[in-house]
Write a structure and sequence with these properties.
heterodimer, A: alpha/beta, eight-stranded parallel β-barrel, B: alpha/beta, eight-stranded mixed β-sheet, 9 helices
Chain lengths: 383, 263
């Protein structure tokens, strides 16, 4: 079991009357609300937290890409990864991921990841994501092109990494007469690839086909189970059984001294995350063409349209989050692992408005009292 | 809306896929190009037009009951498609009536093939790039908000039930508009300059209470097309042909029958 420390880097300081005037903190929430001094402090705090996670034993430290939002202030995750590269030495540096369909120039992503692979001494994990609804508005990319741009950018990037001769690329979305990137990546044939997904059939099929890691984003346990089962089924169709580590799950995690204290401390930060930061601009939750009609019909008929307006108790009960004392958290992870069969957990410990101090304590407790239980547990099996 | 007995539904193979089309009435040919929400509908407006014309109302590729036309990705694909369709139907020239997105296509067709379009009716047309008069971003709305934006009196809007099929169909239709018109947003930047090519006798119909397309758009069409007049239908929103089809039919039919009388 691999444990990754997952950061979203939120900007948690909304004006008190935010809710009276805004439906969302994304796309059109004025950037005048970003205080440069405060933001400057946040970047350094968050990088410290990521570095600290390595020092206490997390296998990976993960950053990701979001645009024009207080939800996450890492429009370029590659810059975060670069900042972490030479300040760390053991953990995988996971970019989860570059939103390749909304980038104008995927070749630039291939170049940056290849550079990062050298800077991290081959510790880089390259995630690709489609980007969230509002980001298609933010970067003026048609969501109806999302799938086609994603697939083509992926194929182009892999070919750019693995080819040793210049080549020409002419596709539906991108045209390059000369592709010949310097540097080639350090890891051969290329850094491992992770795809984060919210259950679209095409994503799972695609991911299983390419044998990439599938990282499920926040949802309730039954939904995640349906996604993972779907992934395993697609893998079976491709003629293989996925290693548990090929299935990852990202979830907000908070470890407190006792269950009661943990819930008390995490209530504000986690409900901020779910009830406020996940709210999309109207219409951007399901931008036209972002989903295939097949996936939309499945989501509607199976009731898999997420509702995040939930209390912490409901979130715990639904399996969206893991909160409690170290032993409760460990038991919960164990139980979910049994049910879902994942081999990687992306613990989003610095979630929502959780303070620096709380993050430190929760990270410590997780690293010292939860992770070791799994190391011991799996050690005999591995030998 | 289900087709009445006066319209026959058929499927037609075209380069790129099959389309579904409704056809009814007698007289000279009239090509009716629907807007974002009008695929598959045979409305009182169609009915009124069919008393004077042979009304041909196809669903656009990727919309209504037409196929996905995977190779189609931009507005020019549709314009050539309609040029092809007239060939396929053996119609050298026709009256072309369009609503909103369909009006944009109609204008483009009249630019591409001026001799094919004898008369042109543009109802609440989009398609021009007027940065000082932005078209409302309907993609950034819930379906309910979209209805509120498109209708002046939302009680005249078709009922939105919880039917999954209807929701998926509406999503597919809106996805098609996004596919063709996300960027440049709802416009062809070159269209305004090219309207000089339009030879058709033209009526531009503006919706009095249009909250999606600012009045500057129909005004600009009427200004740039040589033989064009602008009529405003009051008490109606952007989806004018759905919201007040009878009132719109009066205006359109009287414009078109004036021509009949003249010829």
């Amino acid at each position: 079991m691999k444990f990754n420390f997952f950061h979203l880097a939120p900007y948690p300081y909304l004006p008190e009357d935010w809710e009276d005037h805004h439906e969302t903190m994304s796309l059109d929430f004025p950037n005048g609300n970003f205080d440069p001094e405060v933001g400057h402090g946040l970047y350094h705090r968050y990088l410290d937290e990521l570095e600290y996670a390595e020092s206490v034993g997390f296998d990976g430290i993960a950053v990701n890409e979001h645009h024009q939002t207080a939800y996450g202030i890492m429009p370029s995750p590659n810059i975060m990864a670069a900042a972490l590269a030479r300040r760390t030495s053991k953990a995988k540096i996971m970019v989860l991921g570059n939103a390749i369909p909304i980038r104008g120039n995927p070749l630039r992503v291939a170049e940056e990841i290849a550079m990062l692979d050298h800077l991290t001494d081959g510790r880089l994990v390259s995630g690709f994501v489609r980007g969230i609804g509002w980001e298609y508005f933010a970067h003026s990319i048609s969501p109806t092109r999302s799938r086609s741009r994603f697939d083509e950018a992926h194929d182009l990037i892999i070919k750019a990494w693995t080819s040793t001769e210049p080549f020409q690329w002419i596709g539906e979305n991108y045209e390059y007469r000369y592709v010949n990137i310097w540097p080639r990546p350090l890891q051969q044939p290329h850094p491992p690839i992770v795809m984060a997904g919210a259950g679209s059939l095409e994503t799972m099929r695609w991911c299983a086909k390419h044998r990439h890691t599938f990282m499920a984003v926040i949802s309730r346990t039954e939904t995640i189970k349906a996604w993972f089962d779907g992934f395993r089924e697609y893998a079976a169709q491709e003629g293989y059984e996925p290693d548990p580590e090929q299935l990852g799950w990202v979830a907000p995690v908070y470890v407190g001294e006792t269950d009661k204290k943990a819930i008390e401390e995490a209530r504000g930060p986690i409900e901020w995350y779910f009830k406020k930061s996940l709210r999309q601009p109207p219409g951007a939750g399901l931008p036209p063409g972002y989903m295939s009609t097949e996936s939309l019909r499945t989501a509607l008929t199976k009731g898999r349209i997420p509702n995040f307006d939930l209390s912490i108790e409901e979130l715990i009960a639904g399996g969206y989050i893991i909160v409690g004392s170290p032993s409760t958290v460990a038991e919960r992870i164990h139980a979910l692992q049994e049910t879902l069969g994942f081999g990687q957990l992306g613990a989003n410990i610095p979630v929502g408005t959780v303070s620096q101090q709380q993050t430190r304590e929760s990270t410590d407790a997780f690293a010292k009292e939860v992770i070791p239980l799994f190391r011991e547990k799996t050690a005999p099996v591995a030998t | 809306m289900t087709p009445t007995t006066t319209a026959a539904e058929s499927r037609l193979a075209m380069p790129g896929g099959e389309i579904s089309l409704l056809r009814g009435g007698d007289g000279p040919p009239l090509l009716f190009l629907h807007g974002g929400g009008g695929a598959g509908a045979w409305s009182p407006l169609h009915e009124a037009l069919s008393r004077h014309f042979d009304v041909i109302a196809p669903d656009h590729p990727r919309m209504g009951r037409s196929d996905d036309f995977e190779s189609f990705g931009a507005i020019d694909d549709l314009v050539l498609h309609y040029d092809d369709l007239l060939d396929e139907l053996g119609i050298p020239s026709a009256t072309v009536v369009g609503a909103s997105f369909g009006a944009w296509l109609a204008a483009e067709l009249a630019v591409l093939a001026p001799a094919r379009v004898e008369q042109l009716v543009l109802m609440a047309p989009i398609g021009l790039r007027l940065p000082d008069h932005p078209v409302t971003d309907i993609f950034l709305m819930h379906p309910e908000q979209r209805v509120a934006a498109a209708f002046h009196d939302t009680s005249r809007a078709p009922a939105m039930d919880g039917d999954i099929d209807a929701f998926v169909q509406a999503y597919r239709d809106m996805s098609a508009i996004a596919h063709y018109a996300w960027k440049p947003f709802m416009s062809d930047p070159k269209l305004e300059g090219r309207l000089r090519r339009v030879r058709a006798r033209t009526l531009v119909v503006a919706a009095g209470e249009d909250r999606i397309v600012p009045r500057a758009h129909p005004e600009c069409y009427a200004e740039r097309i040589a033989d064009a007049r602008l009529v405003v239908v009051e008490d109606v929103g952007h989806a004018l042909d759905v919201e007040r089809p009878e009132a719109v039919a009066d205006v359109v039919v009287s414009f078109l029958s004036a021509e009949e009388a003249r010829s």
